[in-house]
Amino acid sequence: MYERRTPMWSETTKDGKVKFREQYKDPLTGKYKKVSVTYDKNTNQTRRRAQIALEQKIQSKLRHIQDGNIKKNVTLGEVIKEWEPVYKKQVLSGTYYSWSTYKKIIKDKIGFDVLINKITSKYLINLYEDMLYKEDYKRGTIIQLKAKINHIMKYAYQHDYISTLPTANLEINWPRERKKSEIEEKFLENDELRKVIDYLEHLQSPNHHLYASLCEWMVLTGMRFGEATTIQVKNVYKANNKYFVEICGTLVYKGLKSKKQFKSPLTKTNDSQRTILLPKKAVAIYKEFSKESEEDYLD
């Protein structure tokens, strides 16, 4: 509980709106501070909404003053709202874009109004296994969901919202791994690959040759799509009569229109930053699509 100096009051702003204010005492300084919210009108409804909003602002400001003590009555949704801006700065744009999918799953399967200190290891194990075996979610989806919840719970632990980590050492009964032969079925034989490239080459599109060459470039170099589409002339160099390409970025495109897509200076993982020796066919593709400026992309 905090000390109020005066009840909520209102002031009219220069543009005719109503600013509701309240003062509270900061336990660290002993001084009174103000919080405020602004609405278009001063009515019973807006006053009630303002009182709730001001209370939430004050509680948010005071929450970290309690660091070192476990805070009570904090919901999962409140922690997610606080954690999201931090997570956004920690990961690539594409990774953060995919978070919206798992956020929806968390909301549907757990709920944002659940008190975060009530989430236990057994609860999470039952959740993951029910999704795997009763709802037929793919293993990869659960692995990613588990990783996101681990991030959130670690943040909650670091900020004294929970006293122990329920995500530590979870023993999940995973479905059996696919056999090697099942995985190999996902790869194309040389004749199958040639059919794909020929199909792209004969598309009814002005970019048909570009698409076919991009596909072949990816096969020859082992690059991901995002890496291949952001290779610039300056990333390819010649040494000892051999051509090399430096992979030092990836395309950020998820959720963005084509004109707003851009090259990130970071690859998907740290290990993805690498230098590759180009085979002769890849060198031919490079020479065909490279331009004079070192900043230009291959297109």
TrEMBL record:
<dbReference type="GO" id="GO:0006310">
    <property type="term" value="P:DNA recombination"/>
</dbReference>
<dbReference type="Pfam" id="PF00589">
    <property type="entry name" value="Phage_integrase"/>
</dbReference>
<dbReference type="GO" id="GO:0003677">
    <property type="term" value="F:DNA binding"/>
</dbReference>
<dbReference type="InterPro" id="IPR011010">
    <property type="entry name" value="DNA_brk_join_enz"/>
</dbReference>
<feature type="domain" description="Tyr recombinase">
    <location>
        <begin position="183"/>
        <end position="299"/>
    </location>
</feature>
<protein>
    <recommendedName>
        <fullName>Tyr recombinase domain-containing protein</fullName>
    </recommendedName>
</protein>
<dbReference type="InterPro" id="IPR002104">
    <property type="entry name" value="Integrase_catalytic"/>
</dbReference>
<keyword id="KW-0233">DNA recombination</keyword>
<keyword id="KW-0238">DNA-binding</keyword>
<dbReference type="InterPro" id="IPR013762">
    <property type="entry name" value="Integrase-like_cat_sf"/>
</dbReference>
<dbReference type="GO" id="GO:0015074">
    <property type="term" value="P:DNA integration"/>
</dbReference>
<dbReference type="InterPro" id="IPR010998">
    <property type="entry name" value="Integrase_recombinase_N"/>
</dbReference>
